[in-house]
Design goal:
Blueprint (H helix, E strand, L loop, with lengths): L2 H16 L1 H11 L6 E9 L6 H9 L3 E10 L4 E8 L5 E7 L6 H11 L17 H10 L1 H9 L5 E5 L9 H10 L12 E3 L4 E5 L4 E6 L2 E6 L2 E7 L13 H7 L9
Parallel strand pairs: 1-4, 5-10
Antiparallel strand pairs: 1-5, 2-3, 3-4, 6-7, 7-10, 8-9
The protein binds nickel (II) ion.
C-alpha cells in the first residue's frame, strides 16, 4: 500500500467507528458501482502549534499541495483551505476556528489540549481526555469547538462523488434514494446546497448520535456524517475543483446538536 493509501485507510477505519452509517452507505452505493471519494474534511483551531498547516503535514509528505483558495465563514468564525494531489487522490479540506474572535476561555481551554503534542494525521483520534462540563461550556460558544473537543483530529466527513456513481441521474436522485433508505439528511439551507450555476451541488446526512464516555459519564452527541458532491464543468469544460463557502457553511451544521 502506498503512503497515501495507508493514510486514507487509517482515516476511513477511524471514521467508520464514529460513523457506522458511513460504512453502510458505502456498501449500499458500492452495489451501484465505484464509490469515489471527492474530499475529506478535518477540523482544528487557528494556532501556530496545531493549525491548518500542521494537519496538512502528513498529506504534504505524500505529495499533496495547498491550492491558493482561502475560505472564510464569518458567522461560524472559521477559515479554511484545501490540498490537492496531482494523482487525483481526494481533496483534503481543513478548517480552523478563529480563536481571536471568541471569548478567551475558548482558546484557554483548547490550546493547551490541542498543542500538547504535535499533530500527526497518520494516527487519527483525540489524544486528550474530556469532561462534560468543558464540553457544555464550549458548546455555548460554538458547535464546532465542542465537536472538535469531543472528537479531535479525525475525518469529520468523507464525501461520495456523485460524478463517479452509476445509476443515479444526479445528486437529487441520490438524495431521494438515501431518504427512502432511511437516512436523515441535513436540511439547513435546503436538502441540496449550491447550484449547477455555481458548478457544485452538495448534500449531507445528519451526523448520527454516538455515545462518548467523558470521565465517568457517557453522553450522546453528534458524531461524523457523510457528504455527497456533484461537480459541473465551467465554460472551458474544466470540472470545478474548489468549494462554495455559502454551501459549506450549511454543511458544517450537520454536526449541530440542535439539528440532531
Ligand atoms: Ni465537505
Amino acid at each position: 500500500m502506498s503512503d497515501v493509501e495507508t493514510l486514507f485507510t487509517n482515516l476511513w477505519q477511524d471514521y467508520c467507528e464514529i460513523s457506522p452509517q458511513a460504512a453502510e452507505i458505502h456498501e449500499l452505493l458500492s452495489k451501484r458501482g465505484n464509490v469515489h471519494n471527492d474530499h475529506i474534511a478535518l477540523r482544528t483551531i487557528d494556532h501556530p502549534d496545531c493549525g491548518i498547516e500542521c494537519l496538512a503535514k502528513a498529506f504534504e509528505d505524500c505529495g499533496y499541495q495547498f491550492t491558493d483558495d482561502v475560505y472564510r465563514f464569518e458567522t461560524k468564525h472559521l477559515r479554511a483551505r484545501y490540498l490537492a494531489h496531482a494523482d487525483g487522490h481526494p481533496r483534503v479540506f481543513i478548517s480552523a476556528l478563529c480563536l481571536d474572535e471568541f471569548d478567551v476561555s475558548v482558546g484557554d481551554t483548547l490550546v493547551p489540549l490541542l498543542s500538547a503534542e504535535p499533530v500527526d494525521m497518520r494516527h487519527p483520534g483525540r489524544p486528550w481526555s474530556c469532561n462534560v462540563e468543558t464540553y457544555e461550556n464550549l458548546l455555548a460558544h460554538s458547535e464546532y469547538a465542542a465537536w472538535l473537543y469531543a472528537f479531535g483530529w479525525r475525518a469529520n466527513h468523507f464525501t461520495v462523488s456523485v460524478n463517479h456513481l452509476d445509476g443515479f441521474a444526479d445528486i437529487a436522485d441520490l438524495v431521494t434514494f438515501l431518504q427512502e433508505s432511511g437516512y436523515a439528511m441535513n436540511e439547513s439551507g435546503g436538502l441540496i446546497k449550491g447550484s449547477e450555476a455555481q458548478l457544485l451541488r452538495q448534500a449531507s446526512t445528519l451526523a448520527a448520535p454516538i455515545s462518548m464516555v467523558f470521565g465517568d459519564e457517557a453522553k450522546e452527541l453528534p458524531g461524523c456524517y457523510v457528504e455527497f458532491a456533484q461537480r459541473y464543468p465551467d465554460a472551458d469544460g474544466n470540472l470545478f475543483d474548489g468549494f462554495i463557502a455559502t454551501s459549506a457553511d450549511k454543511i458544517f451544521e450537520s454536526t449541530d446538536t440542535q439539528a440532531n
